Amino acid sequence: MDYDKDDRIDEWExxxxxxxxxxxxxxxxxxxPFKHPTLGDIEIGxxxxxxxxxxxxxxxxxxxxxxxxxxxxxxxxxxxxxxITEARVAAGTEAGTFEVAMTVTNEGKMPTxxxxxxxxxxxxxxxxxxxxxxxxxxVKAPRASRGRRRRLKSTGSxxxxxxxxxxxxxxxxxxx
Length: 176
Known about the structure:
Layout: H1 11-21, E1 28-36, E2 40-47, H2 49-54, H3 61-78, E3 82-91, E4 97-106, H4 115-119, E5 127-128, E6 136-140, E7 150-154, H5 159-167, E8 173-174
Antiparallel strand pairs: 1-2, 3-4, 4-7, 5-8, 6-7
């Protein structure tokens, strides 16, 4: 709590908040005189650094951990959800070739990359890959762009076999 409204929380404000909201909980140890073998007379006390600098007080740990977990689950639900919403395979213009067309969408609430990250080239563009089966080759691979099309060519011996292979190609979508 910023009691003096100076946009920072000083130690006295932490102590005041502790006195008002957590009296007798043992968060603050009274200053106690101590004879140190090298330093001589000193005082030991103050906030337990384990519970103010690193962790919440022990009796609040479960609540804070639950809140952190709930926030992380909420955040995960906001992440990009890249999905192939449509995929089509059609006969290509050349014999034994097939054209694969797909629509990829992000159904999540966050983009796959922030615009600023794109501007400063911190991220790679979203890409889709086609995993080819044995006997297939990529005939044409245009540069990455929206609405791109790729044709698959099968090297099998019969048209039925070529068709089956082309239809079994998997098209995983990936965002890097």
